[in-house]
Amino acid sequence: MKQIIAIVVLALSTAGASFFGWKQMGSSHKAAEQITELTAKVDAATKKQAAAEEELAASEEAVPPLQLQAQELAAVKAALSSGATLKDLEAAYAKDKKLSTERQLGLAGVRLLTNGSKDPGTVEAFQKALEMTDWKGQKNVICAAQNALAAAGEKVKVMSECAADGAPAKAGKADAHGAPAKDAHGAPAKDAHGAPAKDAHGAPAKGKDAHGAPAKDAHAAAAPHAVHWEYEGAMGPENWGKEFPTCGKGKSQSPLNIKGPFEKVRFNVAPDYKPGPLKILNNGHTIQVNVAPGSKLRIDGKPFELLQFHFHRPSEEHIDGKPSAMVIHFVHKNEAGELAVLGVLLKEGNENPGLKTLWAHAPAKEGPEVTPNGVVFNPANLLPRELEFYSYDGSLTTPPCTEKVKFFILKTQINVSKEQVTEFPFKMNARPVQAQNGRPILTN
Ligand SMILES: [Zn+2]
Questions:
Q1: Full-model pTM
Q2: Active site residue 318
Q3: Domain range list for the chain
Q4: Of these residues, 225, 285, 310, 318, which one is catalytic?
Q5: How confident is the model over 142-158, as pLDDT tens digits?
Q6: Are 241 and 335 within 8 A, CB to CB?
Q7: Which CATH fold would you assign to the domain 250-443?
């Protein structure tokens, strides 16, 4: 699902980027050179797309805001609104007898941005892109086109392979920005976002929350729902691998049962979290707090930006075979796009003042992020003083279970009262512990 949105947004961004590149070249260049330039850009963007998709797969847990992405798209859209761009692009492409599939899709993207999804020219361009693709090599293009057409209300059969990533959105459905959407099984759609984005620091990022209208437009063009998964039953962890292969086949999965022997390391982790306006949501799997840029975790001196934190009950990590009452996962990402999770275990004891604030504003039912007026929260309130950790190489603990996520589980647990555990709206949202497969567990 995220993939589809990503592809469409990327197609649109690519089209926009191509346009800007082309305009800047000026009229003195020959059309052929311009087209060569455009082609190179589209190719580069296509490669970026593949990388972005991989990253996007990780976005279930990694969720930064998309403001900048929205702004970029808005800028592209504003530039396109006159229609002159589209004309120029069409004129340039008219000289080509046959467009590549990517360029055809890019053209469709510019038409979509200029004329909207209902425009016959947009639909035709997507149709054409669809006809041009060969299924095996260009599944992504096909799915993007199919979903975009379906979202535009065209009668198009969305192949099951595309539907597996996300079936087309139906009219009137909202994503997590708006009212909760229901999927075909009547279950709430979980993660409706995932467009690639840059965060405020320019690091590539992605997420669930696009706050800008242009991103919504992109969703409107293709906002399919997510594949449904749960913590129990037929869609439970034992079966995640059917829809999300890494969950089943991965050899570095999280969580782990943490037990010795441990390997001693010399580096430390140093959180530098800052207070900010509370942004909290119930995404159907957990309570999550999205964090504005500026809060960091330094791992061996290297900065990772805190994106969000969320809760599991009971704790996913076991220590010597035993879970704790709950765990908080602080999800971070560095400029290279690497993910690191800091886990803080909660043991039953006194009431936790930080949690008290959060629980007062946590939506009981799945829905969009809420930003209660005037509530400021500092994630540092949920950290113990001692920062000794266990560390291992793991994965996201929710589908798609993407690997290469560094885990740091703090040895010191913080308190949570029995009542506070019961107040958490999910009775059980912990993935079982996974095979260690020879992975070392480090400690500082
Ligand atoms: Zn988690």
A1: 0.55
A2: no
A3: 2-221, 250-443
A4: 285
A5: 667 667 667 666 666 66
A6: no
A7: Carbonic Anhydrase II (3.10.200)
